[in-house]
Design a protein that fits this description.
three-stranded mixed β-sheet; 3 helices; about 110 residues; SUF_FeS_clus_asmbl-assoc; Fe-S_Maturation_MIP18; globular; 3 strands; alpha+beta; GMP Synthetase, Chain A, domain 3
């Protein structure tokens, strides 16, 4: 008997993992910073993450997406993980959560 994994529950696990990854220049995780635009999980447990960086010449442009892929792929239920970087729409401080703004003293 095959056990069916709830893709919503897997999505929540992925978000919890994303909240452990920090932008090295800002003491806030990448999820609360608003760098994650979307997380897609299909029935085969392939994960695609659409994310951005704070700027196109971000010093972690190479390492941050690789870290995201590696950490998401480490989840037992995830078969593959792919990160796609986009700058459309460009990241702005408006994308940050209230929590992130509070953490950075912007509220």
């Amino acid at each position: 008997m095959e056990t069916k994994i709830d893709t919503n529950a897997l999505g929540e696990k992925i978000v919890r993992i994303l909240k452990t990854i920090y932008d090295p220049e800002i003491p806030v995780d990448i999820y609360e910073l608003g760098l994650i635009y979307d997380v897609f999980v299909n029935e085969d447990y392939d994960v695609k993450i659409l994310m951005t960086l704070t700027s196109p010449n971000c010093p972690v442009a190479e390492s941050l997406p690789a870290e995201v892929e590696e950490k998401v792929r480490s989840l037992n239920d995830v078969k593959t993980a792919e990160v796609e970087i986009t700058f459309d729409p460009p990241w702005t401080q408006e994308l940050m959560s209230e929590e992130a703004k509070l953490e950075l003293g912007m509220l």
